[in-house]
């Protein structure tokens, strides 16, 4: 039976992409590359952490990646639209099978050449068996505990811009069959102005069996104040696939982060990535140190580091969004 290991289990590799498209990143390209490089070096941890495999699209991208990363990563030429491999890449199961899903640019918003090829390309490079599923699913829309529980949002998975005829019951049947999970836990809505329509990896994350982390509003002016409070209350009433009532741990939210037009952007400390030796937490503001301190006790044996993700966020996500782990 298919099982998807928890992210905190050992990794054979972490896959990510090098910001490659100058027309997409514009003036943020070099800063985004610097932030991706800092994430990769933290995960590599001088050879003590993860093996990082980085796809670079085009000769310029390949050359700049090799120069920036040195021995911290293996740089591999490969076509993709953009670096959001959590959503376009495969989901690996405990048997080493890579599961691919249809991708439509987060409901038709950002459809780029080659993105639908990423999951099969990574599976081929990983020398993994590849299994294609005939429904739309982004990896950032689901969070699993490795013990049969999957957490998601109705705003994303039941959105008619993904699988138009899905009901909650139909979605559960498809997810259980494809991913081997036993119980689906549903939250309602995600962060303000999130083009992913409420991806769970910006909202709530499992950190151990029966333990889930979410955010507390920074203040009354936090643009997600009500949503964050509702998420915590909803999680506190849930039980996982093993019958455990979830232990809900809250850390400070980022608060208001604005883009150049003055609009709130979906910045979140929840988009952290759990590596073999390091947990990399995106930070954007003065709340970063508090968030890192709050997360550190939850990952004994790992370093928890906060790294800037301002430039990556201009593209629409952060560290979890741009990576996909391959279990050992």
Uncertain spans:
none
What does the largest sheet look like? 4 strands, mixed
The main sheet orders its strands as 3-2-1-16
SS content category = alpha/beta
Overall helicity: 25-40%
Shape: globular
The number of distinct helices, counting runs of at least 4 residues, comes to 11
Strand content: 15-25%
How many β-strand runs? 16
Could you tell me how far the N terminus lies from the C terminus, measured between alpha carbons in angstroms? 18 Å
Return the average pLDDT rounded to an integer. 97
Provide an overview of this structure.
Helices cover 27% and strands 24% of the residues. The chain has 328 residues and is of the alpha/beta class. The longest helix is centred in the N-terminal third of the chain and has 16 residues, at 29-44.
Keywords:
328 residues; alpha/beta; globular; 3-stranded mixed sheet
């Amino acid at each position: 039976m298919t099982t998807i290991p928890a992210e905190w289990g050992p990794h054979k590799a972490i896959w990510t992409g090098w910001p490659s498209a100058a027309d997409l990143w514009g003036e943020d390209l070099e800063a985004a590359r610097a932030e991706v490089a800092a994430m990769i070096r933290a995960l590599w941890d001088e050879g003590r952490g993860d093996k990082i495999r980085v796809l670079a699209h085009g000769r310029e991208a390949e050359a700049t990646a090799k120069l920036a990363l040195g021995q911290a990563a293996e740089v591999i030429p490969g076509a993709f639209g953009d670096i959001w491999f959590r959503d376009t890449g495969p989901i690996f199961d405990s048997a080493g099978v890579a599961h691919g899903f249809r991708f439509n640019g987060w409901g038709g918003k950002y459809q780029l050449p080659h993105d639908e090829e990423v999951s099969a390309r990574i599976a081929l490079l990983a020398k993994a068996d590849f299994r294609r599923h005939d429904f739309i699913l982004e990896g950032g829309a689901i969070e699993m505990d490795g013990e049969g529980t999957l957490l998601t949002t109705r705003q994303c998975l039941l959105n008619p811009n993904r699988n138009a005829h899905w009901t909650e019951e139909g979605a559960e049947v498809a997810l259980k069959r494809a991913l081997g999970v036993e119980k689906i836990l549903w939250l309602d809505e995600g962060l303000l102005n999130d083009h992913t329509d409420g991806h769970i990896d910006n909202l709530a994350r499992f950190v151990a069996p029966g333990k889930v982390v979410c955010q507390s509003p920074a203040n009354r002016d936090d643009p997600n104040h009500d949503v964050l409070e509702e998420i915590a209350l909803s999680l506190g009433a849930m039980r996982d696939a093993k019958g455990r009532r979830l232990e809900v741990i809250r850390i400070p939210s980022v608060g208001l982060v604005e883009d150049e037009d003055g609009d709130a952007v979906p910045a979140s400390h929840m988009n952290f990535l759990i590596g073999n030796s390091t947990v990399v937490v995106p930070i954007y503001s003065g709340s970063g140190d508090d968030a890192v301190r709050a997360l550190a006790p939850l990952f004994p044996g790992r370093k928890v580091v906060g790294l800037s993700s301002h430039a990556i966020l201009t593209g629409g996500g952060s560290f979890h969004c741009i990576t996909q782990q391959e279990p050992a």
